[in-house]
Amino acid sequence: MRTPVIAGNWKLFKKSAEALQLVEGLIPLVKGKSGVEIVVAPVFTVLDRVAKAISGTNIKLSAQDCYWEEEGAFTGEVSSGMLLDAGCSHVIIGHSERRQYFGETDATVNKKIKAALAAGLVAIFCIGETLEERESGRTFDVLGTQIKGGLSGIDSLQNVIVAYEPVWAIGTGKTASDAQAQEAHAFIRGEIAALYGADAAGKMRILYGGSVKPENVAGLISQPDIDGALVGGASLKADSFAALVNAA
Length: 248
What we know:
It is a single chain. 43% of the residues lie in helices and 15% in strands. The protein has 11 helices and 8 strands. Helix 1 packs parallel to helix 2, helix 1 (16-30) runs parallel beside helix 11 (238-247) and helix 7 (139-150) crosses helix 8 (178-196). The mean pLDDT is 96.
């Protein structure tokens, strides 16, 4: 039985006071909820404060990115070990916005996943196709390439979660239909099976991301290969994020 995950990616929102207000509002709404893993991913500057606020609760902390070196002359970067030191248990890697705006490639994503796993973090590994790629019938080719590139040289997937985020559905208000999402998730699980075997594929948690909200989450997570959601906008309010947790 795969434990579903509801992870909230706050992106570039929430300074200290706002971040604390959000988690302090969320804590009582999800208190005692079992059978679901709850994760929030604030900006780097508030990780330590949020870590203290959620200490002893059922909410886990994620960063939104990491660097692949542990230390050195890399101005502006944050290492996996530093994230662990700040209280993180998870880190998002390869989000489409990182790929689109900051030059992330399958090769750099791969190095970041390896660094995260070496530090003991859970890597939330993001993949997904653009609208052009979907409309030209290349969805599976793109996903297959991203999976193979991102996981190259990684022997164990014990601390890896895959997040399928169709780029055309992120922040656009568009959502893949339940059937479209399930088709992509089934393909991803099949690729994992081909690379790592049926047992690893059966244990792999694959999340859907892309304009997930309380109104559409139930249909998505009822699909056999969808194990939760990586949520953007709906994670910025305690009540809407708690509604997603409740649905899971």
